[in-house]
Amino acid sequence: xxxxxxxxxxxxxxxxxxxxxxxxxxxxxxxxxxxxxxxxxxxxxxxxxxxxxxxxxxxxxxxxxxxxxxxxxxxxxxxxxxxxxxxxxxxxxxxxx
Length: 97
Hints:
alpha+beta, 4 helices, 3 strands, GIY-YIG_endonuc, GIY-YIG nuclease family protein, GIY-YIG_endonuc_sf, UPF0213_domain
């Protein structure tokens, strides 16, 4: 069974990058060495892995990645801290964003 990982990287400039992969170790290595010079993270290295969530279904992983990408910084940070109360409150106060 394949495993897909939704991840968030914290970049050196304080921004977050969200993605999905089926090989988190390789993906993290690519981001850290700057494998793709056109990548968002290339000029924002070093990066730090701050969140992962694993899925058995690629479609669910992609849907979750897209959902997170639409969230505010505060919601992403609540997710990273696993602060479900804050995440719920932020969802109420921002119409889902």
